[in-house]
Design a protein that fits this description.
Blueprint lengths: L24 H4 L27 E4 L1 H7 L7 H14 L7 E3 L5 E4 L5 E3 L8 H10 L3 E6 L5 H6 L36 H17 L3 E4 L16 H12 L4 E4 L8 H7 L2 E3 L5 E4 L3 E3 L1 H5 L1 H8 L8 E3 L15 H13 L4 E3 L8 H7 L2 H8 L5 E2 L6 E7 L5 E7 L5 E6 H4 L1 E2 L1 E6 L4 E7 L1 E7 L4 E8 L4 E5 L6 E3 L3 E3 L4 E10 L13 E7 L6 E3 L3 E4 L9 E5 L5 E8 L1 E8 L5 E6 L2 E7 L9 E9 L5 E9 L5 E3 L1 E7 L2 E2 L2 E5 L6 E5 L4 E6 L2 E2 L6 E4 L2 E4 L1 H4 L5 E9 L7 E4 L5 E8 L1 E8 L5 E6 L2 E7 L6 E9 L5 E9 L5 E3 L1 E5 L2
Parallel strand pairs: 1-2, 1-12, 2-5, 5-6, 6-7, 7-8, 8-11, 25-39
Antiparallel strand pairs: 3-4, 9-10, 13-14, 14-15, 15-21, 16-20, 17-22, 18-19, 18-21, 22-54, 23-47, 24-46, 25-45, 26-37, 27-30, 28-29, 29-36, 30-35, 31-34, 31-37, 32-33, 32-35, 38-40, 40-44, 41-42, 41-45, 43-44, 46-53, 47-52, 48-51, 48-54, 49-50, 49-52
Helix pairs in contact: 3-4, 6-7, 11-12, 11-13
Length: about 800
């Protein structure tokens, strides 16, 4: 970030100076911070009624940064923005005017922030009253902690006899925020809550409707708990809820604490500032939009009624000043809409261009946002991405995003959405019905960084599979996410014709999967290029490279270990390694002057991770270049043995034991082998027929064993008898599809409150995607399916699938 703007902050303190947020190593990358499969995920239920939908409005910070003047937020400017909102946007739902850092100056006799008399010579109250008279709501900004000045002044706390501002600082003194402006408050002292209450009461008396709380940790550049604002968040939440004031957390909060943020706040920033910090040039830039996609791939499930994933200011209304092309502006608006993110712009509302105004006021796109159903991706690593959400009315919202370098056709395959059958499709940006389609829809020639936004409505007879993570699946009790992912493992077959039978193959309990640097699942952030045909010993004779510090790559994987393999050379330097969003270490990929270049060097490895979802990220820190050659992933073997031998002159069947259930197919070069002809399956043993193997050429061959996982690779699970899962739908039939396992037992199924059947979910081994209950012939009306745990250690639920009429 290039522009050093000093912005006095309004915290629980006096005026405070803070520079721009640092250029973040993790945030500079297109990063994924996965929630571990075992993490408890509270179902989204009713929240604060004033936050039932994402809010819509305006925030001042982008214009403060763009202007290069943190004091841009004068009374005159705020009144102009409020009036422009009323004239142009308010009838579409925009009604918040939120003022960011620098609004306050000094403190009152009780240590509470005072508005700047310079910015608001007639008083901030007059501005607030003008905003309210325009039918709008007003927001202010603050940070954790208390300023040294207020601490040293030892002022009496309003409404708390005997309490002073000197009493409530944690000893020994510790910083409270990223910038080390304030002191940390000791919330074990009851006076501390009283102090926060007094500020919230003051804000409420002014008519404040919204508070942005910045530098929230864990997150905001610090997640090692050396800074920890969780007590501040809890205190402010309690104080503001009494006044029904919207509480928004910032910036880039740590996803490991997603349930805590949701329980305390109405919104939370999931990433770093959207601004490009290029004063008087642009408000934002494409890479700051693009990096949101992989983060949302993991955050989407936490948004819903009462609390929302915040993507920061939506700067799409000022034309070239936005820093985006027209297609990128539409893509940004679409991403905010389908993510059910707070829809607030940072633009100069007095200078909206016609195209920007059309983006911000399309009623069908706004309706997608206000429906409050965050979309999820089919794949967050593809260049052409399909995102979808199942709406309350049974329709789907589908967004087709082109992240590639050329215009592309993008296909939404209905099965990937959980839909089988036909559906009608409507283009929401064009506001045009496109017709009826079966199994898929292809949008032609989606432009670079462009998008198509669709409403897909299932037609009679279609089946809709509702994943356990869907927003309107109801959970009663203590449920956690769990799951088994779909996967493929190769069987390496050595074919000979010596006439001597090969000895039985053996293999270890793990396998290594090699991913070349051009693997499409590797996400590169920054100015990366590929170099091929170097002749220097690279894996597959190619590497990716960058010359810019802060550029990064990341790779999300399933397994127990990972290695970063690259070249080491005098032209290279330090690289920061992050695992699952946490800094691990800095590795040196350089060599001393005069030392030779080394190819395919493992500079980082870890092999003792829990078997599950992880993310490796590496960020360039120094040197002329940073390279990626390949990434090796360690996974438990699913085949015993993982390799085999076959001699054509001494033919014999080859048997392989499966170490997990759910074999879908065996294939060679993409062509499926014929079951019961080329191979047979008996229990957990697959026997490859010598008649098939004899047709393989001498040398090395590979047979791919594909295994089914849980639907979308996860389930919800509970250990408490009486816990239940339910879903309300309109249709004529319903299926319950879930896992069976040795630790599971009986489950009671209710339809419309009537006990219909007790099903047995116990099995000798864990088996995925089993249809355990089916009801047909229901009247075409609204019904509620409910499954209740009766016996067993665990109950798992995966899919509730209903039939439309």
């Amino acid at each position: 970030m290039s522009t050093a703007i000093l912005l006095p902050l309004a915290g629980a303190s006096a005026a405070q100076a803070v520079g721009p947020k640092p250029s973040p190593p993790p945030a500079a990358a297109t990063r994924v911070l996965p929630v571990a499969p075992s993490t408890a995920v509270a179902p989204v239920g009713p929240g604060d009624p004033w936050a039932a939908k994402p809010y819509m409005g305006w925030s001042s910070y982008s214009m403060q940064v763009y202007s290069g003047n943190g004091k841009w937020i004068t009374a005159d400017q705020l009144v102009k923005q409020s009036d422009a909102m009323k004239a142009k946007l308010q009838k579409y739902g925009y009604n918040y005017i939120n003022v960011d850092a620098a609004w306050n100056d000094g403190f009152d006799a009780n240590g509470r922030p005072k508005p700047s008399a310079t910015l608001y010579p007639q008083g901030l109250q007059k501005v607030i009253d003008h905003v309210h008279a325009n039918g709008q709501k007003f927001g202010l900004y603050t940070i954790p902690g208390i300023s040294p000045e207020v601490y040293n002044a030892s002022l009496p706390i309003a409404g708390a006899p005997g309490c002073t501002t000197h009493d409530i600082v944690k000893q020994p003194i510790q910083p409270s925020d990223y910038w080390k402006i304030g002191y940390r408050i000791d919330f074990s002292n009851p006076c501390s809550q009283k102090y926060v209450d007094s500020i919230a009461d003051l804000f409420a008396s002014w008519g404040v409707n919204f508070v942005k709380f910045d530098s929230v940790t864990p997150g905001s550049g610090v997640s090692d708990l050396s800074l920890d604002a969780r007590d501040d968040v809890a205190a402010w939440s309690s104080a503001l809820k009494r006044h029904k004031i919207w509480f928004e957390l910032s910036w880039a909060v740590d996803p490991k604490y997603a349930d805590l943020w949701r329980s305390k706040a109405n919104g939370w920033r999931i990433d770093w500032d959207v601004e490009c910090y290029c004063a008087n040039e642009a408000l934002t830039q494409w890479q700051n939009i693009a990096r949101l996609f992989p983060n949302l791939a993991n955050w989407w499930r936490h948004g819903g009624n009462g609390g929302w994933n915040d993507l920061d200011s939506l700067n799409v209304g000022n034309g070239s000043m936005d820093g985006l092309t027209q297609d990128e502006r539409r893509t940004a608006m679409t991403l905010w809409a389908v993510s059910a993110a707070p829809l607030y712009t940072g633009n100069d509302l007095t200078n909206l261009d016609a195209y920007g105004l059309s983006l911000l006021t399309n009623p069908e796109v706004i309706a997608v946002n206000q429906a409050g159903t965050p979309a999820r991706p089919v794949s967050a690593t593809a260049q052409q991405q399909v995102w979808y959400a199942l709406n309350a009315d049974g329709s789907y919202t589908v967004a087709l995003f082109n992240h590639g370098r050329t215009d592309k056709d993008i296909t939404a395959t209905f099965a990937h959405l959980g839909l089988s059958g036909s559906a009608t499709v409507r283009d929401l940006w064009a506001r045009k019905d496109l017709g009826r389609f079966t199994n898929k829809f292809t949008a032609p020639v989606v432009p670079i960084h462009g998008v198509r936004l669709l409403k897909v409505t299932p037609q009679p007879g279609a089946k809709v599979a509702v994943n356990d993570d869907a927003l309107r699946v109801g959970y009663e009790g203590d449920w956690k996410r769990d799951g088994v992912a779909a996967t493929t493992q190769p069987l390496e077959v050595t074919v000979t014709d010596t006439g001597t039978p090969a000895p039985p193959s053996t293999g270890g309990p793990v396998r290594t999967i090699v991913h070349d640097n051009n693997d499409p699942a590797i996400s590169y952030a920054g100015s990366w290029s590929q170099s091929t045909g170097r002749g220097l010993g690279d894996y597959n004779d190619n590497v990716h490279f960058t010359e810019r510090n802060g550029d990064s790559f990341q790779y999300a994987f399933q397994g127990t270990g990972v290695s970063y393999i690259t070249e080491m050379d005098t032209s290279q330097g330090n690289v920061d390694i992050y695992l699952d969003g946490q800094f691990v270490k800095t590795v040196n990929t350089g060599r001393a002057p005069g030392e030779p270049r080394l190819a395919q060097q493992t500079v980082f490895t870890v092999n003792d991770l829990p078997n599950g979802s992880h993310t490796l990220m590496a960020v360039k820190k120094s040197g002329d270049y940073m390279l990626l050659d390949r990434i090796d992933v360690l996974q438990p073997s699913l085949l015993d043995p993982p390799s085999a031998s076959f001699d054509r002159k001494a033919p014999a069947d080859v048997s392989v034991k499966l170490l997990r259930d759910g074999l879908l197919a065996v294939s060679s070069g993409g062509t499926a082998l014929v079951r019961d002809t080329d191979y047979t399956v008996s229990g957990s043993t697959v026997t490859l027929k010598s008649s098939y193997l004899a047709g393989l050429p001498v040398g090395q061959a590979q047979l791919d064993f594909a295994f089914r996982g849980d639907y979308l690779d996860d389930v919800h699970a509970t250990t408490v008898t009486g816990d239940a899962v339910s879903y309300t739908f309109t249709g004529t039939g319903v299926d319950w599809i879930t896992a069976t396992a040795p630790d599971q037992g009986a489950v009671d199924i209710y339809i419309d409150g009537v006990l219909t059947k007790r099903v047995d979910t116990h099995s000798a081994t864990r088996t995925t995607q089993q249809t355990l209950f089916t009801a047909t012939g229901l009247k075409n009306k609204q019904h509620t399916f409910k499954a209740v745990k009766v016996t067993g250690d665990v109950m798992r639920t995966d899919v509730i699938r209903y039939t439309t009429k």
